Amino acid sequence: xxxxxxxxxxxxxxxxxxxxxxxxxxxxxxxxxxxxxxxxxxxxxxxxxxxxxxxxxxxxxxxxxxxxxxxxxxxxxxxxxxxxxxxxxxxxxxxxxxxxxxxxxxxxxxxxxxxxxxxxxxxxxxxxxxxxxxxxxxxxxxxxxxxxxxxxxxxxxxxxxxxxxxxxxxxxxxxxxxxxxxxxxxxxxxxxxxxxxxxxxxxxxxxxxxxxxxxxxxxxxxxxxxxxxxxxxxxxxxxxxxxxxxxxxxxxxxxxxxxxxxxxxxxx
Length: 268
Description:
By secondary structure, this protein is α/β, with parallel strands linked by helices. The protein contains 13 helices and ten strands.
């Protein structure tokens, strides 16, 4: 499989059967630019079709796993219907392409994990976080519904009460707390993260591939059942980009201040 067309994602073979997908650059947090967002949606189709791939490890380079959406793209979404439609399609495809990818996906999470990166981290089949990782779903802080993955996976992983608390408040979940809640599969010290992910990948790459892939397919039917809830949440998130709350949320983030959201519509 030729991965040379990818520019924001770097794909390489670590060992026979084990691919590594790296987001971002050394010393920086990976930002979901328009191109990166599109690549994150389609990479899983190529991995599914790659006859040599058995397991894929997704990780962030530099200071953390992911920094969330590029502010320029977010601002475009508030102004341009075509951009909103494109991002909606890519966000939908990211989720369903990961669910339908037959190969096993492992996420290795360190530092901040926000936005589309967080979606991929939690939708991975095996999620491994450093104890000091910081998982943040900041949608409502921005002024839009938590829609890019939250409704399909958080209640199943950590229960509705905890899902509502973290998605409504945007509080940070540490790697240690995420494991305690069931949001991630494993935790380890950050220095051990790459080696731990590779250890698990080796075990899975050496296993019976048909049995593993059919088990993944069967378990993911739990998530497919939640598809309508996800579809609704994503549509409501995108609708929110047309409203006044996201404008204030975006302005407050740019100005590094607390937001002062407008009151809700009278009959809402």
